[in-house]
Amino acid sequence: MIVNEAPPFKELSLNSYLFNDESLKLYEEYIGKTLLYIQKFLSNRKFYKGDDLEEIRENRQKAKLVDIHTSSPINKALEELNELYIENAIAFHNPTYVAHLNCPITLPSIVAELIATTVNTAVETWDQSISATFIEQEVIRWICNEYSFDENSDGVFTSGGTQSNFMALLMARDHYAFEKFGINIKQNGWSDKVSKFRIFCSEKSHFSIKKNAALLGMGYDAVIPVKVDDKMQMDAEALLLAIEKTKQEGNIPIAVVATLGTTDYGSFDPVKTIGKIAKDQDIWLHVDGAYGGCFVLTDSHKHHFEGVEMADSVTIDFHKTLFQPVSCSAFLAKNKEHFRYVSYYADYLNPIEAKDEERPNLIEKSMQTTRRFDALKVWLTLKTLGTKIIASYLEEVCSLAQQVHKSLVANEAFETAHEPALSTVVFRYKSTNVSDERMHDEVNLFIKNTLFKAGKASVASTKLNGKTYLKFTLLNPKNTIMNLLNIVKMIEETGAEYKPQN
Q: pTM for the whole thing?
C-alpha cells in the first residue's frame, strides 16, 4: 500500500483559520495588519494616554465577550483590540516609564517569541520538544557556569521569580526533613516536626518568600526577617543572633535567603558571609537574584557575586535584566539530585521505565507540566547580541541611577533613602516649611498619582520606616539623564502645587 507523503486536510468551511501550510497567506496578512497597530503604539510619545474614569468604565464594557456565536473579520476585531488595549497599554520602552521592573526588550527575543508561538512547542517531554530540549539545557548550562556551578548543577525555566523561590523553599524544606529526620514529605505529607522549621531572609527581601512559606503550609511566621544595615543589606551579625534565638525557642533553622538586588532598593546581601554562616549552621542557602542576577555579566558588580558558588539554589529573572519579554525566568539547583523533590512520573507522559539520557524529559525538573519554549528567547538573544552588549546595557542603567541620585542629593527639595547599588533610586519630595510627616506622605502619593493619571510619568512608591518614598526603577539603557531630570522637575513642580484636602 502506498501512503501519500502529504495527506490532504479535511475539507472544512473554517479550515483556513487553523494554522497550517494552507493558511500561510492568511497568517502573513494577519501579521501585516497587526504590525500597523504596533507601529502606532511605538510612535506614541507618552508612556500612557492618561486616565479618564469614564473611558475606564467604557473599556470594562468593551472587554466583554458578546455576539461571538459567529465569525467576524480580523480587521474589526483588531480595531476593537486597538481601542481597548493597545492604545491604553503602558509603554515600558518609553523614557518617562521609570516605575517597576519592566524593561525594554531585544529584537531577537521578539523574533524568538514569534517562532515559539507559531511553532507552539511545549517543552515538558522529549516527544513534544525534541531539539528545543537541548536549547533550554544549554541556556541553563550557560547561566550555571556564570554562577560557578559545576556539571552536577542543573535548572529549569519557570514563570517568574515567585515560582522559582517557591521551588527553592520546597527543596530546602523537603531536603532538610528527609536528611535530618527521615521524613518524606513528598510521599507521606506533613509532620509536626516541620512546623518548627524556620527560614531567614532580609527584612527587605521579596514578599514571595513569606507568600510561598504560606503556600507550602508553613505559614508567614516560619519566615524570620533579619534587619539590614544603612546600605539595605542583610546584617550578618543580626542573622547569627536570629538563628540562635530561633534555636533557643525550640525551633529549627533550615534555610537562609540572600537577595541579590532587593526589589525596592537594589541592594545586595553579602552572599559570601551569609554563605559561610549557612555552611556552619548546615542549612540551605538560596540566592534570590530575580532582579540583580544578570549583573553577574558586568565588571562593575562582579564583586557582589563572590561566594555565590556556595548557594544551593538560585532564582534569576531574564525578563527583568536580560531584556526579555515576560515571562522568562529560571531556577537553578547546585545539586541536580535535589530535583527529585519536585519530580513525578506519569504513565501517559513520562513513565520512569522510559527514562532516556539521550532524550530527556524536562518535566522531571518542573513544577509546571505544559510550558512554553521561553528559553529560545534567551538563546537567540545571546547568539545575536552576545553578553558584552547586554552587560553594557546594565552598566548604563546603573550609571543613570548614580547620576540621578547625585542630582537629588544636591537638591534641597528632596531626601534620598540611600546611594543606589543597582538601577533603583529611592527618594521623596519634601514640602518646604512642613514638619508633619503625614503631609509629606500625602504629597508624594499625590505626585505619583497625578503624574500617572495625566500620562506624564510613571513613578513607583514604597515605604521606609513607615514613610512614603518615590522610586525610579531604571531598566531602559536608551534613557538619558536629561529625560530623568525632567521627570524630577515634574515631581518638584507637582509637589509645589499640592493643596491639603483639610
A: 0.94
For residues 494 and 413, give the distance between their C-alpha atoms in angstroms, rounded to a whole number: 12
Residue 290 located in a structural domain? yes
**Confidence check: pLDDT of 263 > 80:** yes
Residue among 193, 285, 196 nearest 239 (CA): 285
* Count of CB atoms situated within 10 Å of the CB of 96: 22
Yes or no: say if 101 and 320 are a contact pair by the CB < 8 Å rule.
yes
Same-domain status, 250 and 354:
yes
**Which domain covers residue 231, as residue numbers?**
122-375
Percent of the chain with pLDDT over 90: 87
Cell, residue 277: 554562616
163 and 299: one domain? yes
How big is the CA angle at 235 (ends 280 and 296), to the nearest 5 degrees? 80
42 within a domain of the structure (yes/no):
yes
Cis status, amide bond into 343, omega within 30 of 0: no
Contacts 24+ apart (CB under 8 A), 449-456: 450/494, 451/490, 451/491, 451/494, 452/48, 452/51, 453/50, 453/51, 454/50, 454/51, 455/46, 455/47, 455/48, 455/49, 455/50, 455/51, 456/46, 456/96, 456/490
Q: What are 158's strand-pairing partners? A: 329
The one-character DSSP state at 327 is P
Residue 484 lies in a domain: yes
pLDDT band at 212 (very low <50, low <70, confident <90, very high): very high
Burial (CB count <10 Å: 0-12, 13-18, 19+), residue 144: buried
Q: Based on the fold, state whether residues 279 and 403 are members of the same structural domain.
A: no
Averaged pLDDT score across all residues of the chain: 94
Rounded CA-CA distance 332/134 in Å is 16
Identify whether residues 200 and 87 lie together within a single domain.
no
pLDDT, one tens digit per residue, over 74-89 is 999 999 999 999 999 9
Residue 111 belongs to a domain: no
- How would you list the strands of the sheet with 424-429, edge to edge? 414-416, 424-429, 467-473, 460-464
What's the number of domains the chain is made of? 3
The model's confidence at residue 357, banded by pLDDT at 50, 70 and 90, is confident
Dihedral pair phi/psi, residue 32, rounded to 5°: -60, -45
pLDDT at residue 208, as a whole number: 97
